[in-house]
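seq as requested:
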Amino acid sequence: MPSFVGSLFVFVCLAATAIAATKTPPYYIITNAETPSLNRPGLTPVGKQRAESCIPEVFSQLNIGFILSCKVDKDGEEGLKCPVAVQTATPLAQALGLNITFCGTGEESNDDCVHDKIHAFLKSSNQSALVVWDNTDMDSLLENADVNDAGIDDDTVGTHPDVILTVVSGARVGQISMNCTGIDGPAQLPSLGQ
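struct tokens:
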């Protein structure tokens, strides 16, 4: 996986630079892996491959000590994909020997839950945290986690399953593809000077 290793190296260097500047470990945000069309339940075969192989490989190298995901609150908003977000997070949690912590989504949820749980963990640890969230609820997540844009255009912040957002001290400091071999195609970089 040479392309993955190179991308991960750049990604880790970016995170290390941000950590050195703030002394606060980063946390990472990803969405659920690929799901079938027409709101059918579960993950697709590609989604299962991402959850079971790629995500554990990527994040086992990033000193993760806390995993947070969503659960649908009692108001039961239809269309939320929290069960597949949890299904996406479970193989990594098992590989790292971690429990998954939950925050609710929906009308009855505590809007401060994500922010409070992430920051409580980061204040008491030198490890990083990972948030695995429903891709249809990312705007609410970013708002409730008090994540500011740090100059990243919202239109470029994807909810695609391969995107990893890096957050340090409440600021989005970067985003990168997981670059999963056999799943994610090669990125097209814009030409410079044209």
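The radius of gyration is 16 Å.
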